[in-house]
TrEMBL record:
It catalyses: tRNA(Lys) + L-lysine + ATP = L-lysyl-tRNA(Lys) + AMP + diphosphate. It is found in: Cytoplasm. Mg(2+) 2 binds at E420. Transmembrane segments: none annotated. Binds 3 Mg(2+) ions per subunit. This is Lysine--tRNA ligase. It comes from Pseudoclavibacter terrae.
């Protein structure tokens, strides 16, 4: 069967016709007693193993060694007495399968020509050879259908549309090596993060994803209902308040890698569902947790790229090495805006500046305006990984007040590639002050701020039992992959949410 046209371009009638042809083949196989979906096959080698063992085989050479391999057919060419197929394994390795009339006989050759299509998984066994053109091959003396594809593959020589790549990621994985590479990079990144934490004697824990009260971040939650408990529940926006309970309980160094959910917009750096890393270290602060975060990111880059200098998919090199810059929010904003802005700058002056530069803020407060103005004036000019330190107190209700600068808290945001990659705190552990911050948040919520936190009495009860001084951090795993690979967020997620 000839190569099918690009799946994106197939009309509904064409796709239906091709599917029916393959379904007819499946039916004829069953009638003939040939299993189109066997449960097991006598595989002896992976394709990668065969390639590694015979990488230097000369053109036209025979090995006398036999192998049984399996994979998906990604290229198919049938002639009178010789058939060729290229099969691909899950890791992207390929090998050529050759069926010769002289070796398999007329019946098996005819069955191959009759039943086999592009996209099928097949098993083939025979001698390992090199073709006259130098292609490592299996000269098959037997073959079996491993799984009959009843839909055609897209044209592997044409690029899938972005819509198809996202909605049908399995086709993307078959066609584009970079799609598989991102999955491998993500696995290596998570393994590296866990190893770095283990080196620092952190424990990995799990906390609830269904919560009776949302908190731990300023975000709008997804709301659901539990029939069993007849109560409103929230998909968590952050694990922070439960991880801090663990620290109260004496688990001094904890981290979690898991999913968060925020009922907000989606763009190139935001997704309603995302993977998040959070960690808390007793007797640390925002300086020590910044050091740890730099180590985590740099070790992940080494694990994926073999270097702190990573190469993005567009060919750009980005240096994640060295000691990263640390700048303070208020001084850096003052310098960029050309006017002094401090924690005591009146709201009216900030509103006037925001109007002048066309920065809009819903439910404006001093803190929100300072952060939005900072993003307007400073963010896009950061070229290196940078910790932006010392945030307004109003926007950081879970963070300790700065030990020497009134009106700010000991919080940093890490910016890489122009986006926020991580955030870190010296944690607020005073239960009286924490209650006051929650009350302020509740007041904002009463005025219509849907991102404001509620007063969490259970968390406050835990905090009243004394939490040690601690540093905490949170980092998006998807965004970490963005920093290492240069891809957008939907490319770093295996199966992103789409409408």
């Amino acid at each position: 069967m000839a190569d099918a046209p690009t799946q994106d371009a197939l009309s509904e009638a064409e796709a239906s016709e091709q599917k029916q042809v393959r379904l007819d083949k499946r039916a004829r196989m069953l009638e003939s007693g040939i299993a189109p979906y066997p449960l097991t096959l006598p595989i002896t080698h992976t394709i990668a193993e065969v390639r590694a063992a015979h990488a230097e085989l000369e053109d036209g050479a025979s090995t006398g060694e036999r192998a049984g391999v399996a994979g998906r057919i990604v290229h198919l060419r049938n002639t009178g007495k010789l058939c060729f197929a290229s099969i691909q394994s899950g890791d992207g390795s390929r090998i050529q399968i050759m069926l010769s009339l002289a070796v398999v006989g007329q019946e098996q050759l005819d069955l191959w020509k009759d039943y086999v299509d592009l996209g099928d998984h097949i098993f083939a066994a025979g001698e390992i050879i090199s073709s006259r053109r130098g292609e490592l091959s299996i000269m098959a003396d037997e073959w079996k259908m491993a799984s009959k594809a009843v839909r055609p593959l897209p044209n592997l020589h044409s690029e899938l549309s972005e819509e198809t790549r996202v909605r049908q990621r399995y086709l993307d994985l078959i066609q584009r090596p970079v799609a598989r590479d991102v999955v491998v990079a993500r696995a290596k990144t998570n393994a590296s993060l866990r190893q770095t934490f283990a080196n620092h004697e952190f424990l990995e824990v799990e906390t609830p994803m269904l919560q009776t009260m949302h908190g731990g971040a300023a975000a709008r939650p997804f709301v659901t209902h539990s029939n069993a408990f007849d109560t409103e529940l929230f998909l968590r926006i952050a694990p922070e308040l439960y991880l801090k309970r663990a620290v109260v309980g004496g688990l001094d160094r904890v981290f979690e890698i898991n999913r968060n959910f925020r009922n907000e917009g989606a763009d190139s750096t935001h997704s309603p569902e995302f993977a998040m890393l959070e960690a808390y270290q007793a007797y640390g602060d925002y300086n020590s947790i910044a050091d740890l975060t730099q180590e985590l990111v740099q070790n992940a880059a080494l694990a994926v790229s073999g270097s702190h200098v990573v190469t993005w998919t567009d060919g750009t090199e980005f240096d994640l090495g060295g000691n990263w810059d640390r700048v303070s929010m208020y001084p850096s904003l003052s310098e960029a805006a050309g006017v002094e802005i401090t924690p005591s700058t009146p709201l009216s002056e900030l509103l006037a500046l925001a109007e002048k530069v066309e920065v809009e803020v819903s439910h404006p407060t001093h803190g929100k305006l300072v952060e939005e103005l900072w993003e307007h004036f400073v963010k896009d000019h950061l070229t290196r990984p940078t910790f932006v330190m010392d945030f307004p107190v109003e926007t950081s209700p879970l963070t300790a007040s700065h030990r020497s600068i009134p009106g700010v808290v000991e919080k940093w945001d890490l910016y890489v590639r122009g986006f926020e990659l991580a955030t870190g705190y010296s944690e607020l552990i005073d239960p009286v002050e924490q209650r006051a911050r929650f009350v302020e948040q509740a007041a904002l919520g009463a005025k219509g701020d849907v991102e404001a936190m509620r007063v969490d009495e259970e968390f406050l009860t835990a905090l009243e039992h004394a939490m040690p001084p601690s540093g905490g951090m949170g980092m998006g795993i998807d965004r970490l992959l963005m920093a290492i690979t240069g891809l957008g967020i939907r490319e770093t997620v295996l199966f992103p949410l789409v409408k």
